[in-house]
Amino acid sequence: MRAQRRPRWFKPDTGLAMRMIVTMFLLGAVYVIFGTVLWYIGMPVYFLVLLALVIGGVQFFFADKIALLSMGAREVDEREAPDLHNVIGRLAAQANLPKPRVAIVNSSIPNAFATGRDAKHAVVAVTTGIYDQLSPPELEAVLAHELTHIINHDMLVMTIATFFSMVASLLVRNFLWAGMFGGYGGGYGRRNQDEEGSFFLAVLVSMAVYAVSFLLIRALSRYRELAADRGSALITGAPENLASALMRISGTIQNGRIPDRDFRQAQTVNALFIVPALRGDTLATLFSTHPSLEERVAQLQAMQRQMEQTRNS
Description:
Blueprint: H1 14-41, H2 46-71, E1 74-75, H3 82-94, E2 101-105, E3 112-115, E4 123-127, H4 128-133, H5 136-152, H6 154-180, H7 193-236, H8 239-254, H9 260-266, H10 283-286, H11 293-312
Helix pairs in contact: 1-6, 1-7, 2-6, 3-5, 5-7, 5-8, 6-7, 7-8, 7-11, 8-11
């Protein structure tokens, strides 16, 4: 069955699109500078570049499978989860999307995420814990949030941006390894002062590139979550349902009843979750990939008031 045309009121998020373009441009500029420095100090980077490209290719083409495997997710068909398939199919048709594959994660953490490089390879996964916590309208709002990530194509950009950061991290580790075991091109255990200076310059530049990449990815990731919240509100027409779902999920995560095993399992896909599985005001929450719960709820409440005024006018 062919999907309907996307409603006129559902417009692409131009703010997110511009931020994705700017982020990729800045990351590209940073890596041009990085490559220039490596060339200047005479670092043989061809092997590392080749290795990073292989890893990046695996991440690009198998990102969905890696995420699902890391969470122990299992794809389910319509016979196994008819209600879930019906809701996702209806929302996907309304948003003019191919129906994504559906997976279930056996975890007490109430959460959901979408992954895949494009709409044709997308997967929407939900945890078993989310069924016990959310009402049907709240679950629908969460699923609409995940479908908005697919509409906005931000999953692909995050995959590429993360790949850039991974390259910097890989080079940092290589430089430190080379420094500990005799250099990266000047013999075994023999480095003159110029080589030592080049080594420390490479380490500093690599760390700077990683830090800039880290901050750019966090800034983009937080905005993309707000954009997905707005998309969910527009698709469902009920922002209050997503606001209620976010508060319920966050409250469950923070109440201390979830086993530590489930938190450890969730670490690998926290950036993809609708609410990160983090406890307390830790350093991890400070550098979280998501905006604060207060900011998200305030945005949804403002949209709710605006929709009610429009309906009453």
